[in-house]
Task: structure prediction
Amino acid sequence: MIVFLCGLSVGSFLNVLIYRLPRGLSLVRPPSRCPSCGRRLGVLELIPVLGYLFIKGRCLQCRQPVSPRYPLVELATACLFTAVYHRFGFSLAGLGYLLLLSLLLAVALIDLDHRIIPNSLVLAGLIAGLILQLPAAGARWFDLPSRLAPAIPLTDALAGLTLGGGLLLIIILVSRGGMGAGDMKLMAMIGFYVGLRGTAVVMMLGFMLGAITGLVLIAARRLTRKDAVPFGPFLSLAALIEIFWGPLLWDWYINLLR
Ligand SMILES: [Zn+2]
Result:
């Protein structure tokens, strides 16, 4: 329950991040306002999800509808937190996944809205990933409790980073467009968390999800062949699948090859 509530408040912060970061606004000031009329939000309205229900989805002053995406992001983050906690328990590995998946949720929505992947978010993910490796680096001098063990060893993290960033760099050079430098940096960052095998799975899944969605949208005439599809959301979704079902998918794939 506490984990769920933590997720709700982190989700609320992610909403601020998603709205303000690509617009170059400060994350802490000014306090939250209605995007339509600029009215400052009251204390009740700032409560995740309940605040949205309290105002019945409309600004109390200008009556403009408030996007249901705000409470949905809060709920999604809360579910994410609960799922990671159940799977990985109270551990450093779990904390790393919470961080990564929260960042990826923000990245996916910013990429959808603005077609950019902020460097600051990718950098934050990398720095946090490095910090999470610190206890393991000290394990030479003391016994590392299992709670403090990183999800993957540093060598594997660096291998994932190199493979993810390197392959996308090659694709960018070969395809000239379609894929951006933001996608490359994002994939390198994800690779640092999921390692070599995980990176292979994430890239394969990401391309598959992107291709299927593109074909469906073209068939539905919502998109022409020339339109660019943001890739960040697919990489993010693929990373989520890898973290929860990666080993399972890998075994299935290997068995298929035999
Ligand atoms: Zn308003």
In short: The two ends are 44 Å apart (CA to CA). The chain is about 65% helix and 0% strand. The mean pLDDT is 91.
